[in-house]
Amino acid sequence: MTGPVVALAGGTGGAKLAAGLAAVLPRDELVVVANTGDDTEIYGAHVSPDPDLVSFWLADRIDARGWGLDGDTFHVMDGLRELGVEVWFNLGDRDLAYGIERARRLAAGDRLTDALADLGRALGLPARVLPMSDDPVRTHVRAQGREWPFQEFMIVGRAAGPVEGLEFRGAESARPTPEVLEAVASARAIVIGPSNPLLSIGPILALPGLREALGAAAAPVVAVSPIVGGQVVKGPTAAFLEWAGQPLSAGGVAALYGDLLDGIVSDEPLGPEAPQIPVHTADLLMSDGPSRERLARATLAFAATLAG
């Protein structure tokens, strides 16, 4: 099959795998569809954490924290603190600049897709990063006896469970972009990254028509499990799997995706709770560039066998 490789991504795991895929594919053959349910408006900026996270990883400019720009400064945040502002959402100066320019573009009537494309060009990205939708979708989590916007849950609430509810506000009236639907329809492989299946991939699949488009695509849909050695490397995936009534396992992840998957890359066999789909066993830990590329090559080779 010809066509691009399409990756659905959110969070660090999805961004790392996207970087691995971009490293082993010819330039511009990768299209990343990024979750925008984590987006927020703060400091006069439109902050789009997952698309930016993917972009910074693809540009090889990620910092040691794993979510900002390498070498960024924090003078604006320091200035706000001096003015007595409670700075709970810490943004680097250049990171903030991207968000301010994005807010200006959106206020002028531009699409999020176009604003993100310009950021990609400025960073010299080797792949396209598409927001899942140009319409606003906002993830809200119920935990600790209250309801949280996603960023407040993660930072102020420290992502502490148990989780009591999950809502993607605006998803019912949002739509996948034409670029997303075109990429899915023309793909030769569709990879769901090792992201939180509920928090990071859930908002993408909640868009009307997107799950159906994935099911109708000629390309195989392959998930990479975010469960590594029976544990979660980063983030609150365990708490959300528990809330969904699924075990902390590749089988639990596969069960959430259901009949959407043609196969899964995992370091463990699937349990009886999972759909009976092909499994490719691989080392899932992505600790450096070579390991990201190794997993990317294994995932693409597995998808090719399913397509064949």
From TrEMBL:
<dbReference type="InterPro" id="IPR002882">
    <property type="entry name" value="CofD"/>
</dbReference>
<dbReference type="GO" id="GO:0043743">
    <property type="term" value="F:LPPG:FO 2-phospho-L-lactate transferase activity"/>
</dbReference>
<dbReference type="InterPro" id="IPR010115">
    <property type="entry name" value="FbiA/CofD"/>
</dbReference>
<protein>
    <submittedName>
        <fullName>2-phospho-L-lactate transferase</fullName>
        <ecNumber>2.7.8.28</ecNumber>
    </submittedName>
</protein>
<keyword id="KW-0808">Transferase</keyword>
<dbReference type="Pfam" id="PF01933">
    <property type="entry name" value="CofD"/>
</dbReference>
<keyword id="KW-0460">Magnesium</keyword>
<dbReference type="InterPro" id="IPR038136">
    <property type="entry name" value="CofD-like_dom_sf"/>
</dbReference>
